[in-house]
Amino acid sequence: MINKKGSPLHYQFLAELKAAGEAGAFFTDSHAHIHMEPLSGDMEGVISRADENCVRRIVTIGCGLEDSLLAQKAAETHDRVLFAAGVHPHDSEKIDIVDATKSFQEIFTHPKCIAIGEIGLDYFYDLSPRDVQQNVFRHFLQLAKEYKKPVVIHNRDSAEDCVRILNDEVRGRDRNGIIHCFSGDVDLLRWALDNGFYISYAGPVTYSKSDDLRATLEYVPLDRLLVETDSPYLSPMPFRGKTNEPANTVYNALEISIIKSVNLYEFAVQLEKNFNTLFQA
């Protein structure tokens, strides 16, 4: 894992990052929420700090109708920001699918809307009834097929139902999307890789008690990896407990590059190739 700021590994990171930037490599934060507070109150600063750490592209992710419109506005305002739109499982009970669909259909045609999400299931908090979560999830997967867009999948303690619904709705598609902030087991990982998904890791991959999560990287080919912050949540070491932001993408990338025995420059190049392949950018 990445040691705290000031450690030898931290200085190694700074040296590798500087070398990568000088060679023209850069990173994409494939999943952030910069349109949410507290990041939205300092969006220019957030983007500037990301740029200083060679994070030159950010995907800000919508979690409901109004939230997706805020994500769209952030993307319209900043050249290096793209967005996705969807309904988070926590908010499934709050929407009328028929009414919301009309608005989402317009959002999905926006030139900077690259994916539908985040969508999925969350049985850890169960903030919406499970049957409602499943119905909304299915509906947005069907819209993803209609609009030919990748999906951004949220899964927490719900892998069995998540896979069952994905098998029903989108199995067999190329470039299906992203399993974001991966936290599942090897069985879920293998299913996802076999079914056109890319695997994205966030801050928990750097935590001291995440040995099982780090072990899953053994099964993920370099050409199917992405990195994210899920900011303002899940700050990596050495910033755990503080507000996360896209600049910290590089800490997650460094951790994975060490585990995968690839230097940071080569990993940055591969990550961008993966992102561009998935989204045909």
Termini Cα gap: 32 Å
Summarize the amount of helix as a percent range.
40-55%
How many β strands by DSSP? 8
DSSP strand content: 15-25%
- Enumerate the strands of the largest sheet in spatial order, edge to edge or round the barrel: 1-2-3-4-5-6-7-8
Our Rg estimate from Cα atoms comes to 18 Å
Task: Summarize the helix and strand pattern as letters.
Answer: HEHEHEHEHEHEHEHEHH
Largest sheet: 8 strands, parallel
State the shape: globular
Number of helices: 10
Low-confidence stretches: none
**Average pLDDT reading:** 93
Secondary-structure-derived class: alpha/beta
Commentary on this structure:
This protein is α/β, with parallel strands linked by helices and 281 residues long. Helices cover 43% and strands 16% of the residues. It has 10 helices and 8 strands. It has an 8-stranded parallel β-sheet, sandwiched between helices. Strand 3, helix 4 (97-108) and strand 4 form a beta-alpha-beta unit. Helix 3 runs parallel beside helix 4 and helix 5 runs parallel beside helix 6 (159-169).
In short:
With 281 residues, the protein is α/β, with parallel strands linked by helices. The protein is 43% helix and 16% strand.
